[in-house]
Amino acid sequence: MKVSSILATKGTNVITIRPEQTVKEAVALLVERNIGALVVVNEAGQPVGIISERDIIRAAARREDVFSQPVGQVMTRELVVGLPQDDLISVAHTMTEKRFRHLPIVDQGKLVGIVSIGDVVKAQRDQYKGEIDTLTTQIMTDEA
Amino acid sequence: MTQIGTDANPLRVAIIGAGPTGFYAADHLFKQSDLVVEIDVFDRLPTPYGLVRFGVAPDHQKIKNVTKVFDKIAAHPNFRFYGNVEFGRHITLSDLREHYHQIFFATGAQSDRRMNIPGEDLQGSHAATEFVAWYNGHPDYRDRHFDLSQERVAVVGVGNVAVDVARILCRTADELVKTDIADYALEALGQSRVREVFLLGRRGPAQAAFTVPEIKELGELADADVVTLPEEIELDDLSRASLERNPDPATIKKVEILQEYALREPTGKSRRLTIRFLVSPVELIGNERGQVVRMRLVRNVLYETEAGTLRPRHTDQFEEMSVGLVFRSVGYRGVPLPGVPFNERWGVILNEKGRVIDPDTQEPLVGEYTGGWIKRGPTGVIGTNKSDAAETVKCMLEDLANGLILNPSQPDAAAVEKLVRERQPNYFSYADWLRLNELEIARGRAVGRPRVKFTSVEEMLTALER
Ligand SMILES: Cc1cc2nc3c(=O)[nH]c(=O)nc-3n(C[C@H](O)[C@H](O)[C@H](O)COP(=O)(O)OP(=O)(O)OC[C@H]3O[C@@H](n4cnc5c(N)ncnc54)[C@H](O)[C@@H]3O)c2cc1C
Ligand SMILES: NC(=O)c1ccc[n+]([C@@H]2O[C@H](COP(=O)([O-])OP(=O)(O)OC[C@H]3O[C@@H](n4cnc5c(N)ncnc54)[C@H](OP(=O)(O)O)[C@@H]3O)[C@@H](O)[C@H]2O)c1
Question: Per-residue pLDDT averaged across A60-81, rounded?
Fold first, then answer.
């Protein structure tokens, strides 16, 4: 299974923020959309970083005026990006090994979505559940 | 506002598509306590079950047992089936809005992905989807012709569908007669002159999409030897390192099986199935009659993406092989439904967790939902659609609780039946199907087969004496 099958059920609207916007705006968006991270994009729409709940908490521990800081100051810059054709199995492994929770997905240079570790785990769980379900149905209807 | 979902005012749901997703969605809805729901399931074909009837390979009869589960769901008194009724042709979105509170699209993936290489449309080059539908007796594909007088066949792709196609091509008439393969396909395949079948993977053995039982089965064919090439199943450095970091048992098993195939001595069986890796077709070459005669392949090497996936990259090494028949099995693809927003990029209905999304506002469209292959794309086994449908049904129940449902002017079953009768007098009910099912099984019993399918709508109408 590929990353694209996760993106297929996430609409087309990717919620992003610009580096010059404030952390306060970022927090408002995270809460409003009930998500854990935002991709930070430049004018051209290219991802330049990611800002997560964790980044904000870490920054808050350093300084009290974190809310008025520009997103660009607080975001994580070392950005790993994925492709729609990335295999789920390798994405799951890379995300757990390198300990990041959100992976922006880029297609031909354009941001097309974001997948969280939760999405990946759910997709894998659904896949296993589906396989087990198919097998048990076969066995049960055989006996019936 | 009157409460919907009670005895007096049942929740009325239309499901478009009677594949696994349609049945699982109905089941989830029926299982809600405190909810009275009436479900009408429409399918463009007279028969239910979707790809379980027209996709799942005929030599995998056990998998088709899941239809017993579907029949149980259909036996619910509030379940109705309208077969041979096509959304967009016999009934439209605005019709449905007049009769239902919620509409669930479960139309699967009705088309195929292309390779986008020159020569793809030469005679003798087909989509695996068409071949699969043909041998399974799909009424729209029964008249297709595949030139089985050719000796050499290439199947592009190494997913489970490619494996199905290669396996069916390698089966003997004796093996096939024990299945419910369409009778015309049994005859054509019985006279097949195919000797060499090539399965072509663009990446290495560790990245192949097929699953362990399917690849194992290829080693147990009655009259075909299976072969892999030692230099292609030897893992490259990147694959080896990746497998060491992430020792996934299924991948390890797959590689072991493929390596064992390379060691096998030919046993003189009349057919040979060769599974190749790290090659991509770049061109199909035709003769003067426009018939495919050769395929040009490029060798690939693997590179690692940032997220750790090994992807193929073309080298400058090419080879040509002679083939007379080509099946591309590089994936299915969903098609748009009239009036329903579509996401071209992924070939699915535009949705969030199964709620259909308005492309202009990016907000959910009230009362419209989707599930299965047309929601998430053409991947996953039958059971995967169960949890997928459950996710959508959860959204439907949430929206119902919040009063976000359609407001139909005629929410009653009799009005729908009248409408369908007008638009498609030759519709099929579930009782019709159960009768056809008995007849098919009886026809099979007479000749020692599990079933002999009806493969045209006329045949089915005649069988029902209509
Ligand atoms: C070749 C092949 C072999 C497979 N083998 C296996 C296997 O061995 N084991 C396994 O577990 N899984 C297998 N699968 C996967 C499994 O078949 C799918 O996961 C499953 O069928 C998808 O269910 P669905 O309901 O979303 O779509 P479908 O099964 O495709 O059902 C969609 C239904 O919608 C109907 N429809 C489409 N358009 C319209 C319209 N406009 N109006 C009305 N009705 C419409 C179609 O006629 C069809 O009946 C196989 C798939 C393929 C392609
Ligand atoms: N017995 C069973 O349980 C069974 C039987 C049939 C189907 N199914 C299920 O049904 C689903 C669909 O199966 P599927 O085989 O159609 O899809 P699939 O599993 O996605 O396989 C598609 C194959 O095509 C290859 N491919 C894609 N584009 C290509 C290109 N341009 N050139 C060369 N190769 C290309 C892919 O390679 P890459 O990986 O490199 O992209 C992959 O090997 C799967 O989930 C499958 O498991 C199950």
Answer: 92
